[in-house]
Amino acid sequence: MPRSTPRVAFTAASFISLAVCIATLGLWFHSLQRLDRLRSGSATRRVTLHSKDGEIYIDVATASAPVFKPGYQHIHALPTQYRPPIAAWEVAGLGAGSETVNGPEGAFRRRFVEIPLWLLAVLTAVLPVLWLDARGRKTDSPAPNAPPQPQPTPQLLN
Known about the structure:
elongated; alpha+beta; 7-stranded antiparallel β-sheet
C-alpha cells in the first residue's frame, strides 16, 4: 500500500530533525572544551559565528572604514581566548545586544545574538518524539478492514 505524501514528508522531516539534534548535542559537548569561530565578510562588514560554553553567538559587525580582513576564517582555540559581549537582555541563556566601539581605525558597531545549545537540542527533538508517538499509536490501533471486536455484555444475576 503506497504511503501518503504528508506521512513521508513528516517522516523525512523527523529524521532530518533527529540528525540536527544529534549534531547539536555533539557541538554542545565540543563547545564545553573548545572555542570554534567561523568568520566571513568584507572589509567593512563581518559576520562571525562563535561556539563556546554550550552557546552559539552570532555577531555582525559593521565598520565605517575598511578595518576587517575580507574572506573566510576558521579559528579553533581555547574558550578562555574569547570574551562574549554583554547582552542587553537575556532570558534562559537566550540574549541579544549591540555595542559601538571607537578605535584608532574608526568606529564599528557590533550586533549579536546568543542562543543556548540546549534550546536548539530541545526544539530539534520535538519532531522525532512526535514521530515516535504517532508510530506507537499506529501499532496500537486495529487494522482498518478487521471485523469489529465483540463487546462484553454484563450478565444479569438473579
